[in-house]
Amino acid sequence: MVHRHFGIDVSAKDFRVCFVFRGKAYVEGFSNTAEGFDHLVEWAREVALGGRLRFCLEHTGGYESELVGYLQSRGFYVSVVDSSQSHHFRLSLGKRGKSDAGDAYCLSLYSKERQPKSGIQGRTPISVTSNS
Questions:
Q1: How confident is the model at residue 123 (pLDDT cuts 50, 70, 90)?
Q2: Taking the chain, what is the end-to-end CA distance rounded to the nearest angstrom?
Q3: Which helix (DSSP H) or strand (DSSP E) does residue 45 occupy?
Q4: What's the rounded Cα separation, in Å, for the pair 21 and 81?
């Protein structure tokens, strides 16, 4: 099955989504609410023209939590990646500027190229041992 990769940049009130297909970037904005999540899925299905939808986001201090839960509860493949990994990927593309749409674009490309695992990546708990 063909996979369609969507990058999502999330903030407290809204989020930007980018889908790159045949060299063209499709970008759309949505409110960070249940209604916005519904609109995202409708839009993604429309622009993807079939295939399995894959969503890639960065850790954003919790702003992404409800959206991730929403997408996962509906059976979508969702990867939440560490921002340092996506940052270095962005730099490798020669992208130095920062914008919500630009971040979503790079996350879409990151998802397609790197194929991150579903779930939350890069947040390994640190164990502390006592010397006493």
A1: low
A2: 55
A3: helix 34-48
A4: 22
